[in-house]
Every structure is written in C-alpha cells, then in structure tokens.
Specification:
The protein is an alpha/beta fold and about 500 residues long. About 35% of the residues lie in helices and about 20% in strands. The strands form 5 sheets. The chain has a 7-stranded mixed sheet with strand order 14-15-16-13-12-17-18, sandwiched between helices. A 6-stranded mixed sheet has the order 9-8-7-10-11-19, sandwiched between helices. The protein starts with 14 loop residues before the first strand and ends in a 6-residue tail after the last strand. The model has no long low-confidence stretch (mean pLDDT about 95). It comes from Pseudomonas thivervalensis. Keywords: NADP, Oxidoreductase.
Length: about 500
C-alpha cells in the first residue's frame, strides 16, 4: 500500500522515540489491517513499559531546552509543521482512509482540521501572558506567571487519528511542554506520518514521541504511574476515562478528558425541515456515525415527525457505501467486527421493543465491517439505542410533544458532550440552549467542530477544553510571585 503515497517515506512502521525510529522491541510485533478487507497493512513493534519509560525520560530531558526557546521560535516550528501537513495533505488523507476506513474526501477534511490546530496554537504561543496585581502593601507587587506544566502524555482514539493528536500536541508544544503520544493501535500510521513531518519541521528529539503497540494497559499504566508525566490528556470512552483518572490520581496529574457522548438532536415544529434533515445527515453519518459528537438521538416534535422522517429516508437512500478510496463513497466500513455486532444488537433490541425499521437494519451486502445506514422510527427513550453511545450508522427517531419533554429526555443521560437544536424561533433557542446539559450546542447546524471554539463536555463526558484560546491553558501552571521590599511611591 506504500505505493499509494506520493511520498513513500511518510509510510513509517516503527515507533518514534527520542528522535529515532524504533523498528524492533523484545516484545515482538502486531498486525495492522485495513477495515475494508482485512488486508495486512503493516507489522508494527509492540512497545511496553521499558520503551514508554525511555520516551518519558527523553521528554523530561528535552523539556528544559524546549521551554527555554522563545514563544516566537516555538511558534515558527509549529508553523513549519502546519505547512508540511498542508503540503502532504493527500498522503495523510490516504493513510487515514487505509487504516481507519473513512471516505477519502472526508479524510482530506480531517487533515485540514488537524492542521488548523497546529497553525492556531503556533500563533497562540506568543499570546501566553501573566499578570501584575497590586499588592496588599505599598512595598509589594504580586506577579502572576503562566508556565508549561512539563512532560505530557496523550492517549488518542482511532476515529480521528490526525486531529485528535494535533488538538493535544499543538497546544502542549506551543506552551513549552513535551509530549509522548500513544495513538490507537488501529491507526498508528497517521500518527507516525505526523511524527515524520514534525521531525522535518524541526521539532527537537524527545519533544514529540509516538509509541506503537497494542498492549494498551501496560503502556497506559506507565504513562499514568510515572511521576515525570505531569499532564494526561485522553480522548475515548467514559469507561476507560474513569480508569485513567483513577490511575493518574496516584501521582496527582493534571488531566483533561474528552469522553463519550449521547448527543440529542432536537427538531422543533417551527424548524426548517430541509435544513434539519441536511443537518442531521451531517451530524450522524460523518465517519459512518463513529464520532463522539455525532447525533445519537434524534428527538422530533410530533407535528413534524413524519415529514422529517420522509426527508431523512430520501437522503439516506442516496448515500453511497463502499471503500473510502473509491470516488463518491460517503460511508465507509466500521472499524472492526465488534462495531458491526454492536450496531446490530442495538437495532435488534429496538425492534424487539416496538421500533419500526424505515431503512437499513443489517450488515451491508459488501460484507466485512460494512453496515447499512439505518433509520429507526417509534424509538422510545428507554431503548438501548437511545441511551447508549451508538458509534455506528444507526439513527433512532424519538417523538416528543413539548419543549419541556424534549429537554428532560435530552438531559436524562450521564453524558453531556454535544447537543443540536433546530428552530426558527430565537427566543425558543435561547431558552432551551440554556437548559441543555452539554458542553457544546449546535444551533441550526450539524457540524460544530473547529479550532477556534472550545471543545469539551460536562457531566461524564469529560474534563477541560480543547481548541480555542482556552486550549493552551490545559498545559500551563499558574505561579504567583509575592515581591516585597520595593520602595513605596
């Protein structure tokens, strides 16, 4: 598959630690497969505690020199990294499609999204500033400094293998921190290509390392237990996030967690139904439904329920399912067989409890990890498909009558990552947006992710924010200097 790249040297099949490529470890290798046809893509080294410890040690050594660089210089390095990502957009997108399965056009969009964080935080590096506060005595001044926290560890998911790394690494490096990244074992090639470009951009050895391997418990155990790691950032399931928080508590690390979601997509009876149908298609079927902010529950007011369902059925019928490298494909495979089984189980549970199947409902005729885009009507709030994070191309329609009923159902969840509201009544939007328990709300739009806005959730959907001017704060500590003995004026 290396021949598909314009620059074959971006195809890396070794871990990147301390500025060097590690082809072998004593722990052997693991096999990476294409989710379309299970073809072997690469054999990668399995890293465990020893290799992770080495990466952390070198990150600790590199931290001092890196933090002492001027913010302007760090920003220039990040700017070059961004430019290299843009120049190699097609190759990075191809790697994403090969190992994760999303359609190539969508993968190109992810590369643009990923690169935007590198550009944004390269610019934010020069905007980190402290404060001067009048003292409690006239001979005293209070100085506030904001300093890089130190060595950071990132554990990233497979569904956005480029963007979930740069959204963490770019602010960390901009702040003056160093970082060790453990990408998902299903999507290491994208991460390794980013490491190669970081090397070319002038990121010094040890400042940015990428650990490969499928021994996730061992790797995460060292990242969370090692006292040299002062910050842990994770994107993944709430279940795993709870475990990592408990482990990181032993060394009292600063943590940011972007965890699971169960996004309600609420369509009120005064909404533009065509805009709502377009919005829900975008919010649901991006990456085949494998998105933490994807529309998980579509709550539709009774008066427009059938009309919206008809519009969605029409749009779903036009979706092209297939290999993401093929022209025009809009929905690729799910990541693995377990994801297919989960989608089927959620559909079966809903149908057994009285839901109606309007479209799809089973594994696709293409076989493998493909699943039909599915629409379920007459879903009730108690069904599994309305309460669990689906992470697949299954859309449940839930009926409601009043605004209060919709908000109550939307908030009846342990999750609170994203929500969507469609209405043409501004007062209604303001009122209900204030009552929604989520970190982000899309209003009359189905795509809310960008580098300038704070991304994150409430409740058990996470801690902290990524992106925006707030994102760099996650990698900074506040130091207070009480300066006395100054002459009074």
């Amino acid at each position: 598959m290396k021949h598909l790249l314009k620059d074959p040297t971006l195809w890396r099949d070794g871990a990147y630690i301390a500025g060097e490529w590690l082809a072998e470890t004593p722990h052997g290798r693991y096999t990476l497969r294409n989710p379309v046809d299970q073809m072997v893509l690469a054999e990668l080294p399995r890293c465990r505690e020893t290799e992770v410890r080495h990466a952390i040690d070198t990150a600790h050594e590199a931290f001092g020199p890196w933090r002492r660089l001027t913010a302007k210089r760090r920003g220039e390095v990040l700017r070059r990294w961004y430019e290299l990502m843009v120049e190699n957009r097609e190759d990075i997108a191809t790697l994403i499609t090969l190992e994760e399965g999303k359609p190539l056009e969508e993968a190109r969009g992810e590369v643009d999204y990923a690169a935007s964080f590198v550009r944004w935080f390269g610019e934010e590096a020069t905007r980190v500033r402290g404060d001067l506060i009048p003292g409690v005595k006239d001979t005293q001044r209070i100085v506030i400094l904001r300093e890089p926290i130190g060595v950071c560890a990132a554990i990233t998911p497979w569904n956005f293998p480029a963007a979930m790394i740069t959204r963490k690494a770019a602010p960390a490096l901009a702040a003056g921190c160093t970082m060790v990244v453990k990408p998902a074992s299903q999507t290491p090639l994208t991460a390794l290509a980013l490491a190669e470009l970081a090397l070319r951009a002038g990121v010094p050895a040890g400042v940015f390392s990428v650990i490969t391997g499928n021994d996730t418990r061992d790797i995460a155990g060292e990242l969370t237990a090692n006292p040299l790691v002062r910050k842990l950032t994770f994107t993944g399931s709430t279940e795993v996030g709870r475990l990592l928080l408990a482990q990181a508590a032993q060394t009292v690390k600063k943590c940011s967690m972007e965890l699971g979601g169960n996004a309600p997509f609420i369509v009120f009876d005064d909404a533009d139904l065509d805009a709502a149908a377009d919005g829900v298609m975008l919010a649901k079927f991006r990456n085949g439904g494998q998105s933490c902010i994807g529309a998980n529950r579509v709550l539709v007011q009774s008066g427009v329920y059938d009309a919206l369902a008809e519009r969605i059925v029409e749009r779903m019928a036009r979706l092209k399912v297939g290999n993401g490298l093929e022209p025009g494909v809009q929905v690729g495979p799910l990541i693995d067989d377990a994801a297919v089984r989960k989608s089927q189980a959620l559909v079966d549970d809903a149908l057994a409890q009285g839901a109606r199947l309007l479209s799809g409902g089973k594994p696709h005729a293409l076989g493998g990890c493909f699943f039909e885009p599915t629409l379920l009507a007459d879903v009730t709030h108690g069904m599994r498909v309305a309460r669990e994070e689906i992470f697949g191309p299954v859309m449940p329609l839930v009926r409601f009558d009043t605004d209060d009923q919709a908000i109550a159902m939307a908030n009846d969840s342990e999750f609170g990552l994203a929500a969507y509201l469609f209405s043409r009544d501004a007062a209604r939007i303001w009122r209900n947006a204030a009552r929604i328990e989520s970190g982000m709300v899309g209003i009359n739009c189905g795509l809310i992710s960008n580098e300038v806005a704070p991304f994150g959730g409430v409740k058990q959907s996470g801690l902290g924010r990524e992106g925006s001017h707030l994102g760099i704060d996650e990698f900074l500590e506040v130091k207070y200097l009480c300066w006395d003995g100054l002459e009074s004026v």
